[in-house]
Design a protein that fits this description.
Blueprint lengths: L2 H9 L10 H11 L10 E5 L3 H5 L6 E3 L4 E4 L3 E8 L10 E8 L1 E6 L2 E8 L1
Antiparallel strand pairs: 1-4, 2-3, 3-6, 4-5, 6-7
Length: 119
Amino acid sequence: ETRYEKFLRQHVDYPRTAAPDTRTYCNQMMQRRGMTLPVCKFTNTFVHASAASITTICGPGGAPAGGNLRDSTASFALTTCRLQGGSQRPPCNYNGGTSTQRIRIACDGGLPVHYDRAI
């Protein structure tokens, strides 16, 4: 798995997977995308946009933010999943929140390789 492929697996869900609520969405997606073993990832954000539209941040759709970080000029629909309880040992239980915000990502070779944060 390349860094770009890992970014896609961990952060891109387009179109957004249907779920009755954000808690169910987060629990399903975190497990499906391999972020609950061997330990539960503490927090993760899914971007509900095509890989192509996110990749534009690495070019004309983004502005430099220091190092290899870039800030998107456009806003994106996001779902942020946070682990509930103190333990990172499975089974993992997540709660989620949705928002529409600009994002900061790291790029390498013109491709997104790391989700930094919403801005």
